[in-house]
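Write out a record, fold above all:
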Amino acid sequence: MRIAIASDHAAVDLKTTLREWLIDEGHEVADLGPDGHDSVDYPDFGYRLAEVVAEGTAERGIALCGSGIGISISVNRHPGVRCALVSEPLSAALAREHNDANVVALGARLTGIDMAKACVTAFLQTDFAGGRHQRRVDKLSNPPASKETA
């Protein structure tokens, strides 16, 4: 699978560990940065990751920052991307199965490496269920024009 990964300075070490592990698992990984621990702005890397996933250069994305919150918000600004902030494997699997999430976000200050790997594994191995979930996912990229819900 083609996977893009990006972080901010707080999550560089987790990003590096996950990148190497994913390559060892046989995935093609595009590391979108940053390369060091100097302070950077997570939106810059979140937007870049979202664009790469939305355009199809990567099938899935992994977004990392200190808490996972900031970068997940920036990734979700792109209408073609659905990013789920997770902290355990069940949420990662449900994000795929029910929401067709194409990016998963994790907090490097909150999630250990073994749990991060378990979350990424669940995220990558779970298929979207489709069916009744599809119309809901469609609405995420195309919200209704009025305040009424269908």
Notes: The helical segments are 12-24, 42-54, 69-75, 89-99, 113-125, 132-141. The domain at 2-141 is CATH 3.40.1400.10 (Ribose 5-phosphate Isomerase B; Chain: A,). The first strand starts at residue 2 and ends at 7. The chain has one domain: 2-141.
